[in-house]
Amino acid sequence: MHIDTIAPPELAWQQEALCAQTGGDFFFPEPGSSVREAKRICALCPIRATCLDYALTHDMRFGVWGGLSEKERLELRRASR
């Protein structure tokens, strides 16, 4: 029996994300690993801005979201205060 998973409407954008098609390994690397490949994929993603907005709104602390690393999102939050 196959059960389809349906994303809630507020997360439907994730189905269009390039990361959903490439797998999460690039976007949640081991500490100290490069995020270059994740950022390259994000740069090509049509919903990058939506992803970044989601990460900032929901205080996502791990991984690359919207093309920014954890450290870059933290710096962006601090700069916008």
Quickly count the helices: 4
Uncertain residue segments = none
The averaged pLDDT comes out at: 87
User: What's the helix-strand series?
Assistant: HHHH
Work out the helicity level.
40-55%
Distance from N terminus to C terminus (CA atoms, Å) equals: 50 Å
Number of strands: 0
- The shape, in one word, is globular
Structural class: mainly alpha
What value does the Rg take, in angstroms?
13 Å
Main sheet specs: none
Strand content: under 5%
Quick structural summary:
Belongs to the WhiB family. 42% of the residues lie in helices and 0% in strands.
Describe the structure.
Its cofactor is [4Fe-4S] cluster. This protein is globular. The chain contains four helices and no strands. With 81 residues, it is mainly α. It has helices spanning 18-22, 36-44, 48-57, 70-79. It has a domain at 14-20 and 34-79.
Task: Break the fold down into its secondary structure elements and pairings.
Elements: H1 18-22, H2 36-44, H3 48-57, H4 70-79
Using brief descriptors, characterize the structure shown:
42% helix; 4 helices; mainly alpha; 81 residues; 4FE4S_WBL; 4Fe-4S
